[in-house]
Amino acid sequence: MMKKYNFLIMLVITAMGLFAQNNEHSFSLGVSLGLLGGQSEEIVYRNSKSGYMLSQLLWDMKPLTYAGVEVHYNWQNPANKWGLFTDAFFKFGIPGNTGIMEDRDWMFGTYPDWLTHYSVHDNRTQKAMLIDINAGASFKIFEKFLIKPFLSYSYMNFSWAASGGSFLYPDEDGDHFYLITDTDVITYEQTWNIISIGVSFYGAFNRYFDVDISIKLSPLIWCTAVDNHISRNIIFVDSMFSGFFFEPGLLFSFTPNDFFKLSLSVKYRNISGARGNAKIEGEQAVYYNIGGAGYSVFDIGLVATFTALKF
User: Fold this and answer.
1) Cα 113 vs. chain centroid, distance in angstroms?
2) How confident is the model over 286-307, as pLDDT tens digits?
3) In this structure, are residues 70 and 305 in contact, taking their beta carbons and an 8 Å threshold?
4) Which of 10, 20, 24, 237 gives 20 to 30 Å between its CA and that of 119?
5) Torsion angle, CA of 286/184/108/241, rounded to 10 degrees?
């Protein structure tokens, strides 16, 4: 019996040795610090079929500072010709003033392009959380060049508050006036869920420097939004689908050793065409296909990555 157990133990140890010799697994952890620069868009369309806007609010992030963490796993096959990878990115915005919020209305039905109401307010980002999870495969094309197709899930949640402001309205609505107050007049929360496909192209210049150029695309978009007009005591809730998601990116890295890597990350994320239903909180009526949302933001960050485990 003892000889049988000894044989099994030796077999497991031998298998583990061969596995470790012929396969390469690595886990990496990263920390990042960066800026988001751009704006998010809130839209109310004139009716369910029209492309004309009845109202548009633009919420600035110019800029929004964030801190983040990253987790990476890579596996390379024994022949070193292909591999698998999974990446997870978590970014958290630092609350603060991030520019202005602009509110425009086109209220005349016979003149849909005639701007009737305009106001501008101080904008404060109260909350920002961004999560991206990628999973895919890498294929070696040349000695220092890889192509990496992948599937990606993205989640974003933002909350803004607008206060004070300068108003330019028609005479019957108050003409031109200023509102000096520290209290919020409008708050807006926007949540995005996106499933996309992507591909990246990796190339190494030499032992120390490499670059990764990527692009993600998708029409699979779901956005929910809550617009609280505090001064009017009314809350709008929107649920929007489809549209088009587009994100090119560049990652330029310096790797002085096998343990540490420092990278400059530059991305541009654009979402347009998301549209769906709206309702007023507390009411049963649904206003079909008049809600809209958009997002257009540059993301520039520095990332320090540490290889935590390799076997």
Assistant:
1) 32
2) 999 999 999 999 999 999 999 9
3) yes
4) 237
5) -40
